[in-house]
């Protein structure tokens, strides 16, 4: 498992280079390990109409789900930040929708620093399907 997670960080780092971030210049890469055993990657894609920007995490999750995956076992996120990057609130909610039990969120930076938390730690007291 640990080796898998290292691969996720490497893939997130690599896909980050494809980020389209001409406005913020802040490039982010994400890689999710899905229940089909495959890794889906994503980078942030900005728009001149700034609010249409989609974060790297959501690009990766939506790629996975649209290919048929339904559960995410782990996700790695990488940016060139001082501390390991932390996913935004919107992405936490989207990750939670598809997170397998005990889904790990690996937050990393280009210096090689990492912090790993469970999705439940990142979005406590959350709104879920069980609440509908
Ligand atoms: N961004 C992500 O892709 N993921 C995050 O976790 C934080 C923010 C992107 C959105 C935007 O393109 C840029 O980073 C600056 O906010």
The assigned structural class equals alpha+beta
Biggest beta sheet summary: 5 strands, mixed
CATH superfamily, called what?
Answer: Cytidine Deaminase, domain 2
Overall, the morphology is globular
In whole angstroms, the N-to-C terminal distance is 34 Å
Return the CATH class: Alpha Beta
Number of helices: 4
Radius of gyration over all CA atoms, rounded: 14 Å
Spatial sequence of strands, sheet with the most strands: 2-1-3-4-5
The molecules bound to the chains, other than polymers, are: tetrahydrodeoxyuridine
For the secondary structure, the number of strands is: 5
Q: Please tell me the overall pLDDT.
A: 96
Strand content: 25-35%
CATH topology category name: Cytidine Deaminase, domain 2
For this structure, the quaternary state is single chain
Q: Would you list the SSEs in sequence order as H and E?
A: HEEHEHEEH
- The domain tally reads 1
Q: Any guess at the CATH architecture?
A: 3-Layer(aba) Sandwich
Write up this protein.
The protein has helices at 2-16, 56-66, 89-98, 119-122; strands at 28-34, 39-43, 72-79, 99-109, 114-118. The chain has 132 residues and is an alpha+beta fold. It has one domain (2-125): Cytidine Deaminase, domain 2, CATH 3.40.140.10. It has a 5-stranded mixed beta sheet with strand order 2-1-3-4-5. The protein is globular. The chain starts with a helix and ends in a 10-residue tail after the last helix. The mean pLDDT is 96. Residues 21, 24, 26, 28, 44, 46, 53, 55-57, 85, 87-88, 91 line the site of tetrahydrodeoxyuridine.
């Amino acid at each position: 498992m640990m080796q898998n997670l290292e691969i996720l960080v490497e893939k997130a780092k690599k896909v980050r280079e494809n980020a389209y971030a001409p406005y913020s210049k802040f490039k982010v890469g994400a890689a999710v390990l899905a229940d089909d055993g495959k890794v889906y990657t994503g980078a942030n894609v900005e728009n001149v109409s700034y609010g249409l920007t989609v974060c790297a995490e959501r690009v990766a999750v939506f790629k996975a789900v649209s290919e048929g995956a339904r559960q995410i076992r782990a996700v790695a996120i990488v940016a060139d930040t001082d501390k390991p990057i932390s996913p935004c609130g919107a992405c936490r909610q989207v990750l939670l929708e598809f997170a397998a039990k005990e889904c790990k969120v690996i937050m990393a930076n280009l210096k090689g620093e990492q912090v790993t938390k469970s999705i439940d730690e990142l979005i406590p007291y959350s709104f879920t399907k069980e609440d509908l």
